[in-house]
From TrEMBL:
Residues 381-620 form the ABC transporter domain. It comes from Streptomyces californicus. This is ABC transporter ATP-binding protein. The keyword Metal-binding does not apply. Residues 1-47 are annotated as: Disordered. One of its GO terms (molecular function) is ATP binding. SUPFAM superfamilies: ABC transporter transmembrane region, P-loop containing nucleoside triphosphate hydrolases. Pfam families: ABC_membrane, ABC_tran. InterPro entries: AAA+_ATPase, ABC1_TM_dom, ABC1_TM_sf, ABC_transporter-like_ATP-bd, ABC_transporter-like_CS, Haem_peroxidase, P-loop_NTPase, Type_1_exporter.
Length: 627
């Protein structure tokens, strides 16, 4: 009964099943909360039209879509014509006692060849179309993640995100490659076959219509159940994916904590939940397939009965009776397959909704309509009345802080005070809810709001180096050039030297051309910090923000990097976020962040002498002794 060789994925096939689900994380800014909907959101909670809303992606491939539909149409029509003509030929041979004429045999052979060619063409075109659309969607999803990062990433498990970026998009392959063209072609072929049946006799048409209507209605009838079962499978799949990624990432910690057995047990039970969910989907799929086959068989029997009755009453040429049966079978089988495809596509709604959310993710830091040019020369930075929250209570509540060109200011505060948040605002991951983050050109009175700068200008002027600046798979030199691909070999070598990366490279087999391994795994934490700082300095930023960059280094390393930073520091504004007193006291000025505001500013000696918040902070941490 199967008429199309298109491989249809089992619902349990991970390659075709969107994965999702995530535990709750810290609150994200309001604008991003919609994007962070847990991937295990039941399909029936997904707003309708998710699949439809992705169809415009096909717009750029209109010609291929048309050719695919045409190939599918020829494929299905050739098959129906072939079985109908073959049946008619046999009927003629039986009723008129004469063998088929050579012309009929030639047409039959031609139809076989046409069908084979059309099947190949349809498969080729539909997969080409699907893979091209998916490649584009992957990039759009990545762009969406990048636009909404890092808020979207906060609180999501990496396995879950990978599932969204890859699993959900992969799952849609079935929709683009098989469902659309098949649906259109089967509709047209059925309409044509129905017209022929009606011309042969109205009872023939009446015999197939109920089955066709039931088949067309079945995806709607089973939509809710399918959505629930699909959501269960995808939730379980996402759990397995997230658990696996997390476990592999934290293998060392698990090993050291002796927690491998417990982790294995968790993985096993997550795997069992997935197996149960997949089995439930598969059983339903098999049962639904059998029910659809039954409907087609019932309709064909009805056609046989009606044709036999009409033939015996002399209303139908005897040779047309088997042809009518073949026509009914040939036209209904693709309808049944389309119903199966539509049902399966319905199970992809949640995946489509997540892809849509990622694709249409609003920019958390939208590009300005008319960017202001960045003046040459040194720059300072200013947070002016900055208020910011992550969707809950204000983290920053009116921060005023200025770092003049050539100045180094240390920003200190208790853990969770909002220091990194200030750094993130300077990197423009987000914009403040109130107030402004500005760059200060030498001439007073012309501050530049970061929101008014073009992305490239901002990145070339401001460099933010964090504590955990991840390295990428590639060589040391490639990692250093990340933000400054056009830096000369001389500049690279100079920055590597002053940050102590040269010494690291000299100990490696290929120097700066040595691969650093996945996430810089072949380097120590302190070495990675040096590479991160060198990377941040390479482009010659005019504003440098160091967020606990030297926390991994010993006192000597910290002092060496401080020395390295003095090069060009006269033309740079540096904001230093640090906990270590020795690092903090080197700054020209220190600002203390407390309760979402700057509560104290001054030199180390002034503030320690004043016995205020800074003194309390460092005394509480018992660290003045190590200063
Ligand atoms: N992406 C996020 N989503 C929600 N809340 C966040 C997010 N990032 C930080 N927070 C919260 O904002 C507050 C300030 O965090 P931040 O990282 O800025 O503090 P910090 O002063 O840098 O702390 P530390 O010294 O420990 O690094 C904390 O309460 C933290 O839980």
């Amino acid at each position: 009964m199967t008429t199309s060789p298109a491989p249809t994925p089992a619902p349990s096939d991970p390659a075709h099943s969107p994965a999702p689900a995530s535990p709750a994380g810290p609150p994200a800014p309001a604008s991003t909360r919609a994007l962070s909907a847990p991937a295990g959101t039941p399909d029936h909670d997904v707003p309708p039209g998710a699949l439809r809303s992705l169809l415009p992606v096909l717009g750029a491939h209109r010609a291929t879509v048309l050719r695919t539909c045409l190939a599918a149409l020829v494929d299905q029509a050739a098959l129906v014509a072939l079985v109908a003509l073959a049946a008619h030929t046999v009927g003629t041979a039986v009723t008129e006692q004469r063998p088929p004429v050579p012309g009929t045999v030639a047409v039959l052979i031609g139809l076989v060849l046409l069908r084979a060619l059309a099947t190949w063409r349809e498969m080729d075109l539909s997969h080409d179309l699907a893979y091209r659309v998916l490649a584009e969607l992957r990039v759009r999803v990545f762009d969406g993640l990048a636009r909404s990062a890092p808020a979207r990433i906060a609180g999501r498990r990496s396995g879950d995100l990978a599932a969204t970026a890859l699993g959900d998009v992969e799952a849609l392959e079935f929709f683009y490659a098989h469902a659309i063209a098949q649906l259109i072609a089967s509709g047209i072929v059925f309409a044509a076959a129905a017209a022929v049946l009606a011309a042969l006799g109205p009872w023939l048409l009446l015999a197939v219509l109920p089955a066709a209507l039931l088949l067309a209605w079945s995806p709607l009838a089973e939509a809710r159940g399918r959505a629930e079962r699909g959501a269960r499978t995808r939730g379980a799949l996402a759990e397995v994916s997230a658990e696996t990624v997390e476990s592999v990432d934290g293998l060392r910690e698990l090993l050291m904590a002796g927690a491998l057995d417990r982790r294995r047990a968790r993985l096993r039970s997550a795997g069992r939940r997935l197996a149960r969910a997949q089995r439930a989907e598969q059983s339903w799929e098999t049962g639904a397939g059998a029910a659809r086959d039954l409907l087609v068989v019932a309709a064909v029997i009805g056609v046989v009965a009606a044709a036999a009755h009409a033939a015996s009453a002399g209303r139908l040429d005897g040779a047309w009776a088997p042809a009518a049966m073949a026509l009914a079978l040939g036209a209904l089988a693709p309808v049944a397959e389309s119903a199966a495809s539509l049902g399966r596509a319905g199970g992809l709604r949640a995946a489509a909704a997540r892809v849509r959310a990622a694709v249409h993710a609003p920019a958390l830091a939208p590009a300005p309509a008319a960017p202001r040019p960045l003046p040459p020369g040194p720059l300072g930075l200013r947070l002016r009345g900055v208020r910011f929250d992550y969707g809950g209570e204000a983290v920053l509540d009116g921060v005023d802080l200025t770092v003049r060109p050539g100045e180094t200011v240390a920003l200190v505060g208790a853990s969770g005070a909002g220091k990194s948040t200030c750094a993130h605002l300077l990197a423009r991951y987000w914009d403040p809810a109130d107030g402004a983050v500005e760059l200060l050109p030498p001439e007073p009175g012309h501050p530049l709001d970061l929101r008014d700068l073009a992305e490239d200008d901002l990145r070339s002027a401001v460099s933010v180096v964090g504590q955990e600046a991840p390295l990428f798979h590639g060589t040391l030199a490639e990692n250093l050039r990340l933000g400054a691909p056009d830096a000369t070999a001389g500049e690279l070598s100079e920055v590597a030297r002053i940050c102590g990366v040269r010494a690291i490279a000299d100990a490696l087999p290929d120097g700066l051309d040595t691969p650093v391994g996945e996430r810089g795994a072949t380097l120590s934490g302190g070495q990675r910090a040096r590479v991160a700082l060198a990377r941040g300095l390479l482009g010659g930023p005019r504003v440098l923000v160091l967020d606990e960059t030297t926390a991994h280094l010993d006192h000597r390393g910290d002092a060496e990097l401080a020395e390295a930073l003095t090069a060009h520091s006269a033309t740079r504004a540096t904001l230093l976020i640090a906990h270590r007193p020795a690092t903090v006291r080197r700054a020209d000025r220190i600002a203390v962040l407390e309760g979402g505001r700057i509560v104290e500013e001054g030199t180390w000696d002034e503030l320690i002498g004043a016995d205020g918040p800074l003194a309390r902070l460092f005394t509480r941490e018992g660290s003045t002794a190590t200063a």
